[in-house]
Design brief:
Blueprint: H1 2-23, H2 28-50, E1 65-72, H3 87-90, E2 93-99, E3 103-105, E4 111-113, H4 116-120
Antiparallel strand pairs: 1-2, 3-4
Helix pairs in contact: 1-2
Length: about 120
């Protein structure tokens, strides 16, 4: 939605500038008609842009997760692979919700402190 708001501001500025340009050196009736036309165009564009949606917002529901644009391509560490060397996974990235530092995924797919894995067997 931030993107659409930026477009709206730009369009309003352009519309105001066009109205001022049209007003220079023309008769009153022409200025009035052109100003109405420019205003109608601006309103039409605003209505169109207000229906555009920005990128979908990803919500992480687990309080121990955080969204990352460039998370590990192999996914989160788990209780079973938390000590595995994953240097190959760090070279590429995926957007998504990942466990915060010090947390790993358990069998229930929840982010838990890594020390809890030993007590879960």
């Amino acid at each position: 939605m931030r993107l659409a708001t930026s477009y709206l501001a730009i369009i309003l500025i352009i519309g105001t500038m066009l109205t001022a340009i049209v007003a220079q050196g023309t008769g009153r009736k022409t200025v009035s008609k052109n100003a109405v036309f420019v205003s109608d165009c601006v309103v039409t564009i605003i209505v169109f842009l207000s229906h555009l949606k920005g990128p979908e917002t990803i919500v992480c529901y687990d309080p121990n997760e955080a969204y990352d644009d460039c998370g590990p391509a192999c996914g989160d560490r788990t209780c079973t692979n938390q000590r595995k060397n994953d240097s190959a996974c760090r070279r590429s990235c995926n957007p998504g919700c990942f466990c915060r530092g010090g947390y790993v995924r358990n069998k229930s797919n929840r982010c838990v402190p890594s020390y809890m894995c030993q007590s879960m067997g």
